[in-house]
Specification:
about 10% strand, alpha/beta, single chain, two-stranded antiparallel sheet
């Protein structure tokens, strides 16, 4: 059926904000070191994490074991967003003064507007609500057990643990490099804010997160981008009421301010991918219409292995993406390319 529209209303989207805090960096570090399967995939070598554990007190290592068992890093992040505190002392005061129901409520993951009633009831101790939330999150690897823990742990025990683990991590890991970390995160935020003026919201999120395509959702009015160093190269995603959060890895140029010629790695990958005649042909073909590996092999009259190699390079540069058996051009990523180059060339 064809549709003739006389509406002048543009498709709704979200607004984007960029913010940072060393407290978020602390909570993410605690999350990283207590996730044994993931920590091996992070940019920092295993020796870095082992040295941290060695430098921590016996009491602090006990708190990290508690985090690993109960995933209380999630409560730290949730409470940091609920409080909007960026000072460690202010955050501790906030946690201490929270009433029992509120600390439970803010620590329970946001699961959507239709789950808010259950979230409140669970925070008040309703066994039925707790059970329903656990069932609703049964496909998540840790949410059910975490929800059970948050709703039943003693609040004095929880508060004492959260304050102690955040203090211990900040004093031991963050404080010795506080100025350097602050400078890295601030530089990245400033670079992102400059680029924000050049891109629409969806383009900016994809560029800032190095490839995450986030389309508008009815209940989400804001996307919050938070630069982080400790979790590189991963993005960490979270949901709050009305807000989607991406803790994204800081760019290479933010780590090397002494060399103004260091380019963004995403920019390098894109131009390397496009610096080949065959790959440019593939981009042209996919711009015309999505094609399968078999289609491209036939049209290029090349071996399947060779074409697959070229597709892999284009995919790594986030210029194309597979869906089922077809390859598509990543239009957002392609559209930002000249603006990324302009930002690099004009950087002082």
């Amino acid at each position: 059926m064809e549709l003739f529209s006389t509406s002048n209303k543009e498709r709704e989207t979200y607004r984007v904000e960029v913010d940072y805090s060393l407290l978020w960096e602390s909570a993410l570090g605690i999350a990283a070191i207590t996730n044994k399967s993931l920590v091996q995939t992070l940019e920092q070598p295993q020796s870095y994490w082992e040295n941290i554990k060695t430098s921590l007190s016996e009491e602090m290592n006990g708190h990290l074991e508690y985090v690993e068992k109960n995933n209380t890093w999630k409560a730290l992040l949730q409470l940091l967003h609920a409080s909007d505190k960026k000072d460690l002392t202010a955050f501790h005061s906030y946690v201490r003064e929270l009433p029992e129901k509120e600390i439970r409520y803010h620590s329970i993951p946001y699961l959507g507007l239709d789950m808010q009633g259950l979230r409140e009831k669970a925070a008040s101790g309703s066994e039925e609500a707790i059970s329903q939330l656990k069932g609703f999150t049964s496909n998540n690897p840790f949410f059910p057990a975490y929800i059970e823990f948050i709703c039943k742990v003693g609040t004095d025990e929880l508060k004492s643990h959260l304050i102690s683990v955040m203090s211990g991590w900040y004093e031991t890991v963050i404080k010795p490099q506080e100025e350097e970390l602050h400078a890295i995160l601030q530089r990245d935020l400033e670079d992102k804010q400059r680029m924000r003026k050049e891109l629409n919201s969806e383009q900016f999120v994809e560029w800032g997160t190095n490839g995450i395509t986030y389309l508008p959702e009815p209940s989400v009015y804001k996307v919050l981008l938070i630069p982080q160093y400790i979790y590189r190269p991963w993005n960490v995603e979270a949901d709050l009421e009305g807000v989607k959060v991406f803790y994204y890895p800081v760019a290479n140029e933010s780590l090397h301010p002494e060399d103004k010629y260091v380019p963004n790695q995403k920019l390098v990958l894109k131009y390397k991918a496009l610096g080949d005649e065959v790959r440019l042909k593939i981009m042209k073909m996919l711009t015309e219409q999505p094609r399968s590996l078999q289609d491209l092999t036939k049209e290029l009259q090349m071996g399947k292995t060779t074409v697959h190699h070229h597709l892999k390079i284009l995919k790594s540069a986030r210029l194309i993406a597979p869906e089922k058996s077809l390859y598509y051009v990543q239009q957002q990523s392609l559209a930002t390319l000249p603006k990324e180059m302009d930002q690099y060339l004009s950087r002082f």
